[in-house]
Amino acid sequence: MDYGKYFSADVPSFLKSPVREIFRVVDLSQICSFAGGYPAAVTFPTDQIPSLAEKVLAKYGTKPLQYGATQGIPELRELIAKRYSVPVSQVQITTSSQQGIDVCSRVFLDPGDIVLADNPVYLGALQSFKAYRAEVLPVISSVVEKSRPKFIYVIPDFNNPSGKTMTLEEREEIVRIARELDILIVEDSPYRELRYSGEPVKSIRELAPERTLQLGSFSKIFAPGFRLGWIIGPEPLLEQIYVCKQCLDLCPPVFDQYLAAEFVGSGALDANLVKTIAEYRRRRDLMVGLLEKYMPQGVSWTYPEGGLFLWLTLPENIDTVAMYDEALSKGVAYVAGCFFYTDRSHRNTMRLNFSYIDEAKMEPGIKLLADIIRNAV
Amino acid sequence: MDYGKYFSADVPSFLKSPVREIFRVVDLSQICSFAGGYPAAVTFPTDQIPSLAEKVLAKYGTKPLQYGATQGIPELRELIAKRYSVPVSQVQITTSSQQGIDVCSRVFLDPGDIVLADNPVYLGALQSFKAYRAEVLPVISSVVEKSRPKFIYVIPDFNNPSGKTMTLEEREEIVRIARELDILIVEDSPYRELRYSGEPVKSIRELAPERTLQLGSFSKIFAPGFRLGWIIGPEPLLEQIYVCKQCLDLCPPVFDQYLAAEFVGSGALDANLVKTIAEYRRRRDLMVGLLEKYMPQGVSWTYPEGGLFLWLTLPENIDTVAMYDEALSKGVAYVAGCFFYTDRSHRNTMRLNFSYIDEAKMEPGIKLLADIIRNAV
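ok -> structure tokens follow
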């Protein structure tokens, strides 16, 4: 049977995640993998989960097992509202912050629309925009003046994949562009609470609350297995997102929301965050130290003030896609940087994750990678 | 600020659920409500949840808290595959069966496409098809011959809203139409395992596995708070659904999937299902008895062999939308039947739910409703 004819006109624009495709073919636990973007399991409050489950059932009876409100349970929305100093009416809970991105695509994009985005840009966002047949252009470019974009998408804090953090001036420039073009901003903030050094910079939402949808995530500060995130934004925008969300999945996972509310409300999240930040700061410093120790001349990297990633730039003549099979066969994995560019350029770059790999594998992994790069130079 | 200009061309086609809108304005717990479609909380295995949580963490460590596979965790996919006698490659876990509907819309529909559907049709499906600007037509109609539909959508077992079950002949007719037009079938089966009387009929998937996507749900046999469902279907279709699901939310809730897998795998689901079926059978019989006792001449209803709903047809001159405010003010709620018709016809019908209402409220509720109808005749 030929199934091709049944699909919608959007389907040819669907991109598979190169990262998830790697996971399908290789057991990354057997090698030194800097490829994924998973948080470290040691940061999860695993021991607390059974007692959280008992507590929410004792406190709320069968409510955590029933259908819930489309906007999210009031208890969790109120805690997020308090944490970010916004009215509760400006908070929508999402089934993962990936859903936050997807629902923005769904509600704002038509085929042929333009999104101005980070360059390199987060893969999950690129996939979502492309799946709605939007064009993705770098936000800071001369193209801006000529095109009619629909919104700006950026990760200002500890960017995935680049590891960079926007300065206040860069954020103000984003706001200036958005106001000049009279368009919205989607500020993706999954790592904002994971700062290891330097001073916090005002969020874009704080600079332009009238046109910013800020996406948050519990995946890196609680656990990704619960698939919970949130959107903070102007009520008229959230109202349409709410209606769209009814179609998507009626409501976010209810039981998981009660666990999260109990975790946040009791103060356990903040206590856990202190430990998580200490863990990741140590890992970042270890990684940067190893890069300094092993990488050959001509290799440079970003120094992330937070988040889970850093970004390597190799000498121009090296193609990290071509180098990948050799790296994998020798036992080290990364994500080639060109996948984060819509035009697949910057073939001499790569993204390295420092949150997930076993610490014992960090040194052999970086040493191996340095050797492969040295041979390729 | 005028936000209207930011929205996509799909947004004007978004429909709010009339049911969810009722929930936003009225506290239904204070009245006799037959409106919602919630399962009875007494059917949830609430007492077992803390020990399920402990078990899965003891058995799988931190895996239930980490990101998981986009297709769903292998443990749960295998159990579903076994339960429905299909290969595991034909099973995709979804974040609710509403997501199953939405992902089918996303992957198969373009604006202007036609979906042939039940008439009356499940509201969540209607919302989803409309949000992709598809046209929804009754599956059994002369229109079929003239139009070029994309797929057929039906709930063959214990339909929501009508309570009806398709005979084998009716299912074979659906398959005949689909094969003749060479189109797909989306068989929505959230209630299939909730049969209280009569004999099971072959599913449409069993009759036409090459072109059927069968949607299942844990909401009525475990608990809706976990937002878990599944799709069984041909691999080439699931492959695109898999890529789409990466954009939607990366993966279904992982912790909840492990709870479900433990619940199914240990046999607890089947044990709980026996109790659930007994509970709902009693409620259905109670409801039907009360209708026979109180409803005036000229009112008829379906006798559901399973599921959560029955369907009332009143004398032609009664408008259940016009009658709604009076009913609500006197303390009884229902969903007007016309909302389940794309043309808002059949204004003398209503959907009654018998699973969620307190049993003690059933008799006063039906008596009240009968009085209001008698006055309106």
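The first strand of chain A starts at residue 32 and ends at 33.
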